[in-house]
Every structure is written in C-alpha cells, then in structure tokens.
Design a protein that fits this description.
By secondary structure, this protein is an alpha/beta fold. The chain has 2 domains: about 120 residues, Ribulose 1,5 Bisphosphate Carboxylase/Oxygenase (2-Layer Sandwich), CATH 3.30.190; about 90 residues, Rossmann fold (3-Layer(aba) Sandwich). The protein has 8 helices and 10 strands. The strands form 3 sheets. A 4-stranded antiparallel β-sheet has the order 8-1-9-10. The longest helix is centred in the last third of the chain and has 18 residues. It is globular and about 55 Å long.
Length: about 220
C-alpha cells in the first residue's frame, strides 16, 4: 500500500473528534540490538510543510535572551525559575511535559542538568545550548517545523507528521520525509523495518504492508 493510500484510509476511517487530530507514523523494527550504539539515537527532522500546529518551546537564559524568547511568543525561564523547579518537582514535570523543545544559554546547562536532567534526559528534551547574543529566530523556525524521533529501548518509532486538516499532498510529503529519514538512520535501512503504520491520534492504525500480505496469502 502506498503512503498516500494509507493516509487517505486512516483519515477516512477516523471518527470525528472535538479536536484536530495529529496524523502519526509508527514504525516497527526488526533485527534490533540495543547493545549497539547505532540502535540508540535521537533525531529532529524538519518537515517540508511543518507540523500543522504550533510547537511549544521553552528558553532558559538571562534578561536579554528571555526578552528575545518572549518577543517570539516562547516560554521564558530564568535562573530563579530553576530554583523554583528544584523545590517543586510536580511543576517542573508539568513544564517539561508541555514543551516539545528547550533552548538555553550555555552557562545554565550544568544547573539545568542537575535540576531537570533526570526527567529531560530520558525524554530526549535536554536544551540546545545557544549563546546569549545569538539570533534564536532561525533555530526556533526550524524546531517549529520539526518532529523528534527517538530509538532507545523499544523496537518501535512513533512520530506525528501533520494534522488531519492539512492537504493530503502536504501530509504525503511530510510522511515521506519522515520515513526516508528513519530508513537512513537505521544501520540496515529498510531491512530493519518490519511494519509501517499510519493513524490519527484516536484512529485505527493502517498497515502499509496490508496489500502485500494479502497478495502473498492468495
């Protein structure tokens, strides 16, 4: 089954919800050995047509850097906020859960690691260090269009590549970019892929191998 056909089927079979659902890719892997470093990676993939919705980004920095963040509509966190997170673990977990990406000026990275590293690290959300005087606009623009894929200890990769309201051509382009990047990251490429599924947030998964398997069984 072609990716376009799978996306169309997933959208058609998905019940209408009171929110805009994401369209997601799930890639089941085979011949995976997590003892080898090449099977553990985190990658941010810019999608040609973006994600179809805003991505929440947080910035840790000084007054100058935080002003830049606020001007761009981003969440801004100071050293004082880190002290508050250290005392309120529940609040810190909520902030981490609500944000997709984080940026930070380099001299705050050690403290961030100490206060939030135990939660940020396993989720692949450790901040990207950015010099205080750097223009963060191009970095933010790239992250807004990106999705994170992560392979760590389970032989499956999940990632959204758009929302159900996007034109089908844009979803196909985004999904193709995502799948081809995953193939390039895997040591054996396509040979490491067992199954590929497309689904909406609450919808039924559509197997791209469905038609092939049906033909084999005849």
């Amino acid at each position: 089954m072609e990716l376009k056909t799978a996306i169309e089927k997933a959208l058609k079979e998905s019940k209408k919800r009171n929110f805009t659902q994401s369209v997601e890719l799930a890639v089941s892997l085979k011949h995976v050995d997590f003892k080898k470093a090449e099977f553990k990676f985190t990658e941010e993939i810019p999608l040609p047509h973006g994600r179809g919705k805003d991505v929440k980004i947080g910035v840790f920095g000084n007054i100058e850097m935080l002003k830049k963040a606020k001007d761009l509509g981003l969440s801004a966190f100071s050293a004082d906020d880190l002290d508050k997170f250290e005392k309120n673990k529940r609040k810190s977990r909520k902030v981490i859960r609500e944000h997709e990406y984080f940026l930070s000026q380099p001299d705050m990275m050690i403290k961030i690691g100490k206060v939030l590293g135990a939660t940020l690290g396993p989720k692949g959300k450790m901040p990207k260090p950015v010099p205080p005087k750097a223009d963060i606009r191009p970095i933010v623009a790239r992250l807004q269009k990106s999705v994170r894929i992560r392979l760590r200890d389970q032989p499956v990769i999940h990632a959204p590549f758009g929302v159900e309201s996007m034109p089908i051509e844009q979803l196909v382009a985004n999904g193709t970019t995502l799948l081809s990047t995953i193939e390039k990251k895997l040591p054996a490429g396509k040979d490491n892929i067992a199954r590929v599924f497309v689904k909406t947030t609450m919808g039924k998964a559509v197997n791209l191998h469905e038609r092939v398997e049906a033909e084999k069984s005849e």
